[in-house]
Amino acid sequence: MRIGQSIDVHQLKQGRPLIIGGVSIAHEKGLDGHSDADVLTHAIMESILGALSLGDLGKHFPDTDARYKGADSLQLCTCVYEMMVQKGYKVGNVDATIVMERPKLAPYIEKMRDNIAKVLHCRLDQISIKATRGEKMGFIGQEEGAAAISVCLLEEV
């Protein structure tokens, strides 16, 4: 087995869609980035890449490459899944936390789990997603950005 961990951070900006875990969420600000800036999916992908010793997202999907401008992170996660399969691994489990002051994410967590489980070809009970707030402290608490943390366990096939 192999273990990987990652953290991803994105700024919140007016005029951007808010997409987390592949779920579009109505909000006055969205996450800013070269792709759709899905902070949760990015952290999960990078934890898998880390477990496989394959580097980071920038190595595989550079923000200097126009092909990834506005990219759907769930589609990028499909590419990471294929890398994992090629290396002879499958998901044991993923445990991830989103840190964002607003909006409340609880109503969206199950759909996020479902989206990630489908892309990683695993059972829903292998994907844990939680959310917490910044308690009005720091860039997260001041609603300037959001972060996600992910740990994954990969098992040899």
TrEMBL record:
Any Pfam family matching the protein: YgbB
Transition state stabilizer, annotated site positions: H34
Give the signal peptide, or none.
Answer: none
Keyword hit for Metal-binding: yes
Q: Which UniProt keywords apply?
A: Isoprene biosynthesis, Lyase, Metal-binding
Kindly state what the record says about how the cofactor is bound: Binds 1 divalent metal cation per subunit.
Reactions it catalyzes: 4-CDP-2-C-methyl-D-erythritol 2-phosphate = 2-C-methyl-D-erythritol 2,4-cyclic diphosphate + CMP
Q: Which residues form the 2-C-methyl-D-erythritol 2,4-cyclodiphosphate synthase domain?
A: 1-154
**Binding-site residues for 4-CDP-2-C-methyl-D-erythritol 2-phosphate, renumbered to this chain:** D8, V9, H10, H34, S35, D56, L57, G58, F61, P62, D63, T64, D65, F139
Residues binding a divalent metal cation are: D8, H10, H42
Which NCBIfam families does the entry mention? ispF
> What is stated as this protein's family in its record?
Belongs to the IspF family.
The entry describes its oligomerization and partners as:
Homotrimer.
What name has this protein been given in UniProt? 2-C-methyl-D-erythritol 2,4-cyclodiphosphate synthase
Species name for this entry?
Faecalicoccus pleomorphus
